[in-house]
Design brief:
4 domains; 6-stranded mixed β-sheet; 23% strand; alpha+beta; 454 residues; Dihydrolipoamide Transferase; 27% helix
Length: 454
């Protein structure tokens, strides 16, 4: 019996994934629950385990290839010498049971094993999500495109090759007049710009974002030893940071808080609860609790702009993103309902999320749904900086190092532990004075941490 191994949908927003590594080789005996391969989706690297026992007979999608979710990536059999020749690409599918998923792999790149859950392919056009998106944006009828993938499946490259053929004149992409003028000024080809407006219409922000991502001539001529491929997580970070810088009306407010009592509170907690809790509470834990409390009191900061840009949504849950530096790049694990958690629960969840992020094992939902972000560069001896807002959030708090300074207090010069806090906010959603009141409240709670008890 042949069993299909598919790339599962491991998150609400996951549409495709990259096969990072095949842990098992063709011919290996597999037990149920054993790790088969790892896949990268958005910012997460995920482990995919076998849901049945048998032998890995054929790997259909090699390492490094991107495929849609539910694509068949390998074949397993119950017996080591079972015939799978009938499942050759372009051949006739054999009869068997699809034990991995009961969903129809509409975008599967290979002939499907017949089962009640899989519909036969009669006149349907099989194309990857990117191919369909590109075709929709550029007005291409997929029925006219010849697919070069398995079983005639259409890839994005097939669509682009069709547009590049001499006999085809690509239609002008839909764009706003301002976007057209911006594209002309920046030298951006609208055909290469994905639109985020209604029905894929290209907006000015889309053009600015595309211009920011375009390689410079110097970068193209750089020696190979100095090049880094803009793929995977690096590409995602670049796209999101450029989009944030292009579309937000960002303003940064900076204040300096006297963190002397904050430091003392952390020291006392470290001495008294570390053994019981299993970890030493850190400044990020305390600050997270402070910010979550302030967000509950100032809900207009815990907000986002609706997709059509017409409504400011005040969000009911405080889902706090904590930026983490990893070997793969910047990740922002999200602590849900942070305002409902005490310091111990907050710190425990933060450490679990951080460990998964740094090990490259974050789940897709670990990194989604944030409503506000904290980013801390104090450990690198940074005093202050202007953070970039993590869209679609309304604001982000950046913190530097806590350091002893000579300050005037009650008419005397004394040494105090001072902390610079930088709040970057989107002026489209929040005005300066309300944002300042929010930052002022954070400062008050840092300077008087006992207020958290109230």
């Amino acid at each position: 019996m042949i069993t299909e191994v598919i790339l599962p949908k491991l998150g609400q927003t996951m549409e495709e994934g990259i096969i990072v590594e095949w842990v098992k080789k063709e011919g290996d005996a597999i037990s149920r629950g054993e790790l088969l391969f790892t896949a990268e989706s958005d910012k997460a690297v995920l482990d995919v385990e076998a849901t049945a026992r048998g032998y890995l007979r054929k790997i259909l999608v090699p390492e490094g290839e991107t495929v849609p979710v539910l694509t068949v990536v390998a074949l397993m059999t119950r017996q080591a010498d079972e015939d799978i020749s009938g499942y050759a690409v372009g051949g006739t599918p054999v009869t068997g049971k699809q034990a991995v998923s009961n969903e129809t792999p509409e975008s599967a790149g290979l002939p499907a094993i017949k089962s009640q859950a899989v519909e036969p392919r009669r006149g349907r056009i099989f194309a990857s999500p990117r191919a369909r998106k590109t075709a929709r944006e550029k007005g291409v009828d997929l029925a006219l495109v010849t697919g070069t993938g398995p079983n005639g499946r259409i890839s994005e490259r097939d669509v682009l090759d069709y547009l590049a053929s001499p006999a085809v004149v690509a239609p002008q992409p839909k764009a706003t007049p301002v976007a057209v003028r911006t594209a002309e000024a920046l030298g951006v080809d609208l055909a290469d710009v994905p639109g985020t407006g209604a029905n894929g219409r290209i907006m000015k922000a889309d053009v600015v974002s595309a211009a920011a991502l375009a390689p410079t001539p110097a970068a193209e001529e750089a020696p190979a030893a100095g090049m880094v491929s803009m793929t995977g997580l690096r590409r995602i970070i670049a796209e999101r940071m450029a989009a944030s810088d292009a579309v937000t009306a960002r303003v940064t407010l900076v204040t300096e808080a006297d963190a002397t009592l904050f430091v003392e509170a952390r020291t006392q907690l470290k001495d008294s609860v570390t053994e019981e809790w299993g970890f030493a509470p850190g400044y990020n834990d305390l600050l997270g609790v402070v910010v979550a409390r302030a967000l509950r009191e100032f809900p207009y900061i815990n907000a986002r702009l609706s997709d059509d840009g017409q409504v400011i949504e005040w969000l009911p849950g405080v889902n706090l993103g904590m930026a983490v530096d990893t070997e793969r790049g910047l990740l922002v694990p999200v602590i849900r309902d942070a305002d409902q958690k005490g310091l111990r629960d907050f710190g425990t969840e933060f450490r679990n999320l951080m460990e998964r992020a740094r090990a490259g094992k974050s789940l897709p939902d670990d990194l989604a749904g944030g409503t506000f972000t904290i980013t801390n560069l104090g450990m690198y001896e940074i005093d202050a900086f202007t953070p970039i807002i993590n869209l679609p959030e309304a604001a982000i708090l950046g913190t530097g190092r806590i350091q002893s300074k000579a300050v005037v207090k009650d008419g005397e010069i004394v040494a105090r532990q001072m902390w610079t806090l930088s709040l970057a906010f989107d002026h489209r959603l929040v005005d300066g004075a309300p944002a300042a009141r929010f930052l002022q409240r954070i400062k008050q709670l840092v300077e008087n941490p006992f207020l958290l008890l109230g």
